[in-house]
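haha ok so turns out i had the wrong file open the whole time. this is the CORRECT one, sorry everyone. sequence first:
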Amino acid sequence: MPYKKILGANVHYRNESSRMSKGTWIFWYVIFGGLTIASLWLGVSSYFKEQAFLSRAELDTGTITTYEWHFYGGTGEYCPRIEFTSKAGEPVAVQGTDCPKRPDDSKIGQTVQVYYDPEHPEKYQEKSSLSGHLGLTAGLIAAAFFSLFWIIPLLVAVFRRLTSTTGASQ
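then structure:
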């Protein structure tokens, strides 16, 4: 590949013969465009599922009573055990989501708010600032990431085309 001297340094650049073909560009646009659309679809569908869960869920306050060891394929972590009483008066114990490598004894006795399905109290979600929006947020972040792989090359191509036509007409 050819080199060009820029500011005293040899810079490696592509010439016209080393550029990707239109078919290759179309292939990558379809792949990353599809990933962008799939991320948006999954985020939006997750949002509606979360909203449906929250519409029927009860909000209760649970207490972290202990940390339990959970082993996951080679590594382990301590997850808090959250206990609360359902509206029906049944005691419920669920596993918290903030699972450190070592138990944090200072959190034992603290309260956390939990959304749970009254018919199936084992289906729960800890209340957070993203409650009801976590899937949508993740989908939007993934869609923004994947869109960079087709928007930036598209803008570069449009910019090159505009500058080459205006430069040629002068």
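Strands lie at 3-6, 9-12, 58-72, 75-85, 91-95, 111-116, 124-126.
again sry for the mixup
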